[in-house]
Design a protein that fits this description.
The structure is a homodimer. Chain A folds into two domains: about 120 residues, Rossmann fold (3-Layer(aba) Sandwich); about 190 residues, Rossmann fold (3-Layer(aba) Sandwich). Chain A is built from twelve helices and eleven strands. In chain A, helix 3 runs parallel beside helix 4. The mean pLDDT of chain A is about 95.
Chain lengths: ~325, ~325
């Protein structure tokens, strides 16, 4: 179910730039796949790509219209349907990370069938998986884990893939969430897999590879998140990571969506992840800390990174501001 | 989706007594719900209930035919369908824990619709769940956890419910697997829930209750099982257990289905479960060990129970041979 590129990024009538953050992520990490953006009247987002009509994009070779926008509720807006219909008629597939399925809109299902195009709902796995077998497979694996949800696990994984490739290392980002799948063109939304198959889905996602090849796997949730830790643990076991990178957002006052739950201590979180990872890979170890300091003043951020690095004895970076070179150094 | 009783237990053409172990479990734990057994020619199982024809059972008031047999592969055998059709015509629902769905047999689906009867596939959740909110809810909860799969977690939970009720305590077994659901008449097959909702499903399964009421929740898998630990952790967090009972099968040489994985040390396993449980219930503690010694000589079994009890400082029983009174004592 690989999503074909080049992409045309659909921004719809995004109410603000944040509503188009999926499109922003795709454009940032896969600029070579993105021909342009297509916006409806009233759109208040602009991700800096050329504006194209659907017809222009089709002529330029666009293979997939990527719905890179979320409105309130994360569902498909009725005002978007006409444009999606046109894209199908022009020969594009449509890929979406929204909650509801493209194929549940009868007009889209009918047109896709008529024109032989695909409606790709990356949130909904389209295949079944085996139960995990736990067997060691060749190749190296790095997994980003977190103190909480939405602390930069995808960003950090993509930054590490980029840094590794820049150094000539063999590396592939492996996506486990909606935006990641649109960026990678493939992957599994692990939180949407049936519970019995979480680890098996990750074994499938990150198969045997060359001994010097790194799969850089996007983590989900947190072992310390009371709603989602089961997903995080199944992902950790299926990934059999050689290396963990712990991601953190230091200004958060409680776990995301759980006002009564505090954020775990970094060292406690690191050790819990290492201990759990060692069930399927006894060599698993944390190789770095990735801290999102975007909400902090520069000096305070620098102090914090230094302190964490001292406390844990690990390279500690803000992946967005500083890159991840010190973490990749540690792997070599 | 409560399964109505009384039940008629369908043993089909079970190849041996083990093939009818689901029926055996239902008859053992809910004798008051079971009118009799219905067997096809060639059936080599007998669970000791009166043999009844479908017509006799219908006249006696049977509400549900429970498919309490598994053949190789755990799927519905074509040779069973005629009997299931007759049961529907006679006004019974059908409940099954098999892998394939009753409703996928067109003749059964049509007859059920025609007669207004229900086809209940307990392996497949029929409702959606919320994401877990992690909020503390009234009532007490006990969860059975395990060193491995299939070590007696359901049996132990049912034995504890029975012991509590015998003492006049308020207690309800909460089923999380197929056989447990057929025994309880209700429940959620947590390993079949979409991963994001594991903990939420358990919060739903074990709602707020009287402060002196115990939900005795059936555990699944093991935190140390490389295929299923995600399910176990999500269940542990959703259950918010006050009390844990650790179940163990001491003769096992490796984890079930995973020849390369050893069984965890009891103390390590106990501490890992307590630590994980304390995320959602800081008061969680292990209150006893339940050891299945059926594969051991009596003297060796007695020695082992004594040694474990000494090592861990907890009541240690074989729930099948000795009951669980010492564990329930510990709770009071």
């Amino acid at each position: 179910m690989t999503i074909e590129h080049p992409y045309l990024l659909f921004l719809g009538d995004a109410a603000d730039p944040l509503a188009a953050k999926t499109a922003q992520g795709v454009a940032h990490w896969r600029p070579e796949w993105c021909l342009g953006q297509f916006r409806l009247p009233g759109c208040r987002a602009d991700i800096g790509l050329p504006d194209m009509t659907l017809e222009e994009a089709a002529r330029a070779g666009a293979r997939t219209l990527v719905v890179g926008v979320a409105n309130r509720g994360g569902v498909l807006a009725p005002t978007w349907v006409a444009a999606l219909e046109t894209a199908l008629r022009l020969g594009m597939d449509i890929a979406s990370g929204l909650h509801n399925r493209l194929g549940d809109v009868p007009a889209l299902a009918a047109l896709a069938a008529e024109h032989g195009r695909r409606l790709i709902d990356v949130r909904h796995p389209t295949r079944t998986f085996e139960v995990a077998n736990g067997r060691k497979r060749p190749g190296k694996r790095l997994l980003t884990v977190g103190t909480d949800c939405s602390v930069g696990k995808m960003y950090t994984a993509l930054a590490i893939e980029k840094e590794m490739r820049a150094r000539g290392m063999k590396a592939d980002f492996r996506a486990t969430g909606q935006t990641g799948i649109l960026i990678a063109g493939d992957g599994v939304s692990v939180d949407a897999v049936v519970a019995d198959f979480i680890s098996g889905a990750v074994e499938w996602l990150s198969p045997a590879n060359d001994p010097d090849h790194w799969d850089v796997i996007e983590g989900q949730g947190s072992l310390f998140h009371a709603s989602f830790a089961g997903v995080s643990l199944g992902l950790l076991h299926g990934a059999q990571p050689d290396a963990l990178v712990l991601c953190h957002e230091p200004t958060r006052t409680h776990m995301r969506g759980l006002p009564d739950y505090g954020v775990p201590d970094l060292k406690v979180c690191l050790e819990a992840n290492e201990a759990a990872a060692r069930l399927t890979n006894p060599a698993a170890r944390c190789v770095g800390i990735s801290v999102n300091t975007s909400q902090m003043a520069p000096e305070a951020a620098a102090d914090l990174l230094a302190r964490i690095s001292d406390d844990l004895g690990l390279p500690t970076v803000d992946a967005f501001k500083d890159g991840v070179a010190p973490i990749v150094d540690r792997l070599i």
